[in-house]
Design goal:
CATH topology of the largest domain: UDP-n-acetylglucosamine1-carboxyvinyl-transferase, Chain
Number of strands: 22
Structural class: alpha+beta
Mean pLDDT: 95
Number of domains: 2
CATH superfamily of the largest domain: Enolpyruvate transferase domain
Radius of gyration: 22 Å
Number of helices: 12
Shape: globular
Strand content: 15-25%
Largest sheet: 4 strands, mixed
């Protein structure tokens, strides 16, 4: 890790950016392509760590994979396969929730043994819901350490499938992971959620829509219940749209500096939860316009406080919190208690880091209250990224207005945004790598 000085421009940020493809869409498309067994490609896949981890998982399971730029080719094969119990296939989950929650159900359909592990923080992330469901559906699991956590060994083979009831209130990925592979279970799968309200429901809608595009029959007409009929997954090519949650970081630059930023290729319709950032930015006082070049956000003269429920788009919380820390009024972020189980405890991390700059943040049961206070960069303590890409970009947003902010691990942004510092510099019109915050 290296300390990165966040640039503080002397003028409002104005520019046009292109952002990499959606990691959520990409990793669903890659898995469906691998499960189809066909000869197909995924265009627009961002060269991020999460993409590399998913393609690595497919390769470990015997799928031919070639990557050329932002195109991933999936070669024809006869089905996923593992190894022997003594020499299993090895899947590295890194810190990618889509790999650690989506790939085990797929591996349960493989022939042979598969061992899963990941980064040290990944061993702390919730896994019990999906692993317990797999056991109930007929999968065989053995654990190296704590039960229902990484690392573990999965003995693949035909999996019975059927009905399962889960509490997915900690992550919608538990539902999506079971649905994505459910068509290849002998009986298909019926997933019922029984617990607190589900977070990030748009991500489940994304999963259902993509399954249907792959020719899978999915029923979702009953609340909190999803039925996937058994059958093949169609061979098809996929094209990935821009990642709107990552785009929100660049749009926030316009809001906090009173500038104007355009994101190329913003889709008119989408299942990505990141689109929910637009009404939030409008509450902050920004103006939004769709045009032929993309979507443009113009920042306000004064940032208003907001009261927003981000339950369905919790991934936006660090970006929204960063803007709120620079607002003139109190902001309340609600419905995001589940973020305590993400790459890090994002609520505690945001409260800690904003407070260390002089801010006033209170954690509530399901969110944050952020009050307006002057912030000051600290030479003695950098903004902590916690190996979390969205925490790192939140520090960069605050640094646009607060001189002297440093981020302790800007490299972790590579999880979803290749060369984030270079893209940030380009938006600000700075030569790449300009030191000392660029003032």
């Amino acid at each position: 890790m290296s300390i990165w000085s966040a640039p503080t421009p002397d003028a409002p940020v104005t520019g046009t950016v292109s952002v990499p493809g959606s990691k959520s869409v990409t990793n669903r498309a890659l898995l469906l392509a691998g499960l189809s067994g066909g000869d197909c490609r995924v265009d627009g896949a961002p060269p991020t760590r999460d993409t590399v981890l998913m393609t690595g998982a497919l390769t470990a399971l015997g799928t031919p994979v070639t990557t050329t730029g932002d195109t991933v080719g999936i070669g024809a094969h006869g089905g996923l396969r593992g190894g022997t119990p003594d020499f299993p296939a090895e899947v590295d989950c890194g810190l990618a929730g889509t790999v650690m929650r989506f790939v085990p159900p797929a591996a349960a359909t493989a022939h042979g043994a598969v061992r899963f592990d990941g980064d040290p923080r990944a061993r702390e992330r919730p896994m019990g819901t999906v692993l317990g469901a797999l056991r109930d559906l007929g999968a065989r699991l053995r654990f190296d350490g704590a039960d229902d956590a990484l690392p573990f060994l999965l003995d693949g083979g035909p999996i019975r499938g059927g009905e399962v009831t889960v509490d997915a209130s900690a992550s919608s990925q538990f539902v999506s992971g079971l649905l994505l592979s459910g068509a290849l279970f002998e009986r298909g799968v019926v997933v019922r959620h029984d617990g607190k309200p589900l977070p990030s429901l748009p991500h489940i809608a994304m999963t259902v829509a993509m399954l249907r595009e792959a020719g899978v029959t999915v029923h979702d007409d009953e609340p909190n219940t999803w039925r996937v009929e058994p059958g093949p997954i169609a061979v098809r090519d996929w094209t990935i749209e821009p990642d709107l949650s990552n785009a929100a970081v660049f749009l926030a630059a316009a809001v906090v500096t009173g500038g104007q930023v355009t994101v190329r290729g913003w889709p008119r319709t989408t299942t990505q939860p990141g689109v929910d950032v637009l009404p939030v930015l409008e509450q902050f006082g920004a103006r939004i316009e769709h045009g032929p070049d993309g979507l443009t956000v113009a920042g306000p003269d004064r940032i208003a406080g907001v009261d927003v429920d981000l339950h369905d788009a919790g991934e936006l919380a660090p970006t929204v919190a960063a803007v709120a820390a620079l607002a003139s009024g109190t902001s309340r972020l609600r419905g995001i208690g589940h973020l305590r189980g993400h790459e890090t405890d994002r609520l505690a991390a945001l409260a800690t880091e904003i407070t260390e700059l002089g801010g006033a943040v209170t954690e509530t049961e399901d969110g944050l209250v952020i009050e307006p206070k002057p912030l000051t960069g600290r030479a003695d303590r950098p903004w902590g990224a916690y190996a979390d890409h969205r925490m790192a970009t939140a520090g960069a947003i605050i640094g646009l207005v607060v001189p002297g902010v440093q981020v302790d691990d800007i490299g972790c942004t590579g999880k979803t945004i290749p060369d984030f510092p270079g893209r940030w510099d380009a938006l600000l019109g700075r030569p790449a790598g300009l030191p000392d915050g660029g003032r």
